[in-house]
Write a structure and sequence with these properties.
Layout: E1 7-8, H1 17-25, E2 31-33, H2 41-44, H3 49-57, E3 64-70, E4 89-95, H4 96-105, E5 113-120, H5 121-124, H6 128-131, E6 144-148, E7 151-156, E8 161-168, E9 171-176, H7 207-210, H8 214-219, E10 222-226, E11 231-234, E12 239-244, E13 249-256, H9 266-277, H10 282-297, H11 320-334
Parallel strand pairs: 1-2
Antiparallel strand pairs: 2-11, 3-4, 3-5, 5-6, 6-13, 7-12, 8-11, 8-13, 9-10, 9-12
Helix pairs in contact: 3-4
């Protein structure tokens, strides 16, 4: 099967935040931005892991963090263990500089793999963001750094939009659209490796035999290899497996909700719907689905399109006034008032 790749656009087309939203974000599809971060000092050091590790050591705040340690037998593929309640790796708390020392010393596949991820740079590398910025993103977004040996992060999704930038090594992303969820054989929501549910099938040795529906997802997969300086925009809810294919790898990512009118998250609404709707009779669920479609997903347009806009009330645009009114009404309902 030929490998399908995400859309690529030239960084010359996104010299402003407005252009970034128009050309990249608004399509809600993955976009590759080659050499978006080519001017970063960490990238300009080149393929020289000891020098790149030294660069980060000088910025290290000394704050401890959790690292994943994998036995050589797992080949850096962090996943569930033999029992459903366990994992195939150990967790160890260490400082970033200690992890860097271990990663540099562990370039041999016969050595344990090490992976330290999702470290907010304002806590762990306080001066990093000043020299490693993305001008088309809002300044308030705190970048996070992911460092490790050769490894595979299991296929998962994020509930935020994501700009992932390769600073060292190479990364391969395998992507599946949100509506492939039923073909990915997703694990539990409340027993995860790092917060998000993962696809069981995408990590299986023989998914065709164990998980026959996975073939449908695989036919829709997008795959892209990223070099230092390259970036990938991933919309929220897109499934992605991330392979760090070099012995020393650094990824910097930015999470934010590009379309949020306030602090409330769609995932929260889904969780609430699970306890209010998921186990009602099928006919009632179908009835509520019709109401959700009409009021929330709106395949036929605005639910009050037949009335003048001044009559839309809380169904009008979510400007701050309507947002506050809706939120207050929801909180009152949740309190049972």
């Amino acid at each position: 099967m030929a490998m399908r790749a995400p859309r690529e656009i030239s960084v010359a087309l996104i010299q402003s935040r407005e252009a970034f939203m128009d050309e990249v974000v608004n399509g809600c599809e993955p976009v590759v931005l080659r050499q978006l971060c080519a001017a970063w000092p960490l990238v300009r050091i080149g393929n020289h892991p000891p020098a790149q590790a030294d660069y980060l050591r000088h910025l290290d705040s000394g704050r401890p963090a959790e690292a994943f340690i994998g036995d050589p037998a797992i080949s850096g593929r962090y996943f569930y263990g033999r029992r459903a309640d366990g994992f195939n790796f150990a967790r160890r708390t260490m400082r970033l500089s200690e992890a860097l020392d271990a990663i540099i010393a562990s370039g041999d596949p016969e050595e344990p793999s090490i992976y330290m991820g999702s470290l907010p740079v304002d806590s762990y590398l306080p001066d990093f963001a000043a020299t490693h910025s993305i001008p088309v993103l809002p300044e308030w977004i705190v970048p996070r750094v992911w460092i490790g040996t050769q490894s595979t992060a299991a296929c998962h999704y994020d509930t935020q939009d994501n700009l992932a930038c390769v600073a060292a090594g190479q990364r391969r992303f395998t992507l599946y659209p949100p509506d492939a969820i039923g073909d990915l054989y997703v694990g539990p929501i409340d027993h995860t490796m790092a917060g998000q549910p993962i696809s069981i099938a995408a990590q299986a040795p023989d998914p065709d035999q164990e998980f026959p529906r996975f073939e449908a997802a695989r036919r829709r997969a997008l795959t892209v290899d990223l070099d230092p300086g390259d970036a990938l925009y991933l919309p929220k809810l897109w499934w992605h497996q991330v392979e760090a294919t070099s012995s020393f790898n650094i990824l910097v990512n930015y999470w934010w909700d590009a379309f949020s009118p306030g602090p409330d998250q769609p995932f929260t609404a889904m969780m609430l719907a699970m306890i209010t709707l998921a186990e009602r009779p099928a006919a009632e669920r179908a009835a509520w689905r019709a109401f959700f479609d009409h009021y929330v997903f709106r395949p036929d347009g605005h639910p009050l399109a037949h009335m003048s806009e001044d009559q839309h009330g809380i169904l009008g645009p979510l400007h701050p006034h309507n947002y506050r009114r809706l939120r207050a009404q929801i909180m009152q309902l949740l309190r049972g008032c």
